[in-house]
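Anyone able to model this chain together with pyridoxal-5'-phosphate?
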Amino acid sequence: MISTGSMFSHIECTSCKKTFSKDEILKLCPVDDCGKVLFPKYDLNFDKSRKSIDDLKNREPNMWRYKEFLPVNFEENIITLGEGFTPILDAKNLALDLGINKVLIKDESLNPTSSFKARGLSAAVSKAKEFGIKKFSIPTAGNAGGALSAYAAKGNLESYVFMPKDAPQANKTEVKYFGSNLELIDGYINDAGKRSLEQSSNLNLFDVSTLKEPYRVEGKKTMGYEIAEQLNWNLPDHIIYPTGGGTGIIGIWKAFQELSEIGMIESGLPKMICVQADGCSPVVDAYLKGKKYAELFKKPATIAAGMRVPIAVGDYLIINSVNQSNGTALKINDKDMVEGVKKMSSREGIFCAPEGGSIVSAAIKLISSNFIKSNETVLLLNTGSGYKYLEELTDAI
Ligand SMILES: Cc1ncc(COP(=O)(O)O)c(C=O)c1O
Ligand SMILES: [Zn+2]
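re: yes, here you go
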């Protein structure tokens, strides 16, 4: 067995702070009355010289280049399809239109299965494989189900996907081609979550719901590591993120905390901006009311399937990342999301998902309210591809 050199040391609860062994198979915090999200922790007391940065230059261009800060202990357990190290593009046309100094787009649609979900599932399925787990389940708005199915296929593992019946067609089709078991749910992702849990106990499946096991967030966090490395350890002033369950924004913020702790960041930290849909905005509403936790959003409806998440177990962590970074949170309606897709497509040649469209419109709003200043740099995180929403985007044009 070849060691990855991972510095994974233990698991810690993000709420009650109790610690657990890294060798335990855990979901949410098992402490009575807690049940909150668990984070992997690393031994960050290592050689902090520039040597480690030079070493990075010789590594493969995928997210496993940061394997010291990922939880998998042995190389042979890594299941990879080449996820990560997506480009950060200089969006000069958009910057000109928006009237600001610099707009950058990190294009996550270039990942395997065409969304950033590949990162989280590569990490979670690899770590589960290390624990000897062979059968998985997932509730999904669409893209995460596609990603789990792909990594299960690659790793010769079994997977069960629970998806709202009105999820994008591309997600349903890819899951079937990847050989996963698909069950369509008459309801929202939280209803799919209940069915996934039920079937997990019936069929002895390991449920990899967003933030309900500690490792998907570790894959997502590599977006933060890449932003830092690709921008030469100088972070942008703002990062705008389309938020559903929140693993992305939470993971990026975790990455910046870890990199700050080991002294790699040479600038200030960005303001984290959480964008949700007008038709499904539980976390933005809670943030605007100054609350720590969100309430269930009734009758969620938006073209951005990935943002149709009426309740998120990591709500308090999303709000913390916004507050700690002096960021903000805002809502965008579906019409403006489609306008955003048109802008990113027609001005930058990136046919983005509606989730990606939402962040273009959010940037426009925040520039006109002067939250973003004309001399600042904004990084837009395009989480997915428009090609997966062809029916929805065809109808909307
Ligand atoms: C394209 C896309 N963007 C954003 C999201 C929201 O992701 P997160 O759970 O990290 O908030 C999803 C989730 O399904 C998605 O598919
Ligand atoms: Zn706890």
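DSSP finds 13 helices and 13 strands in the chain.
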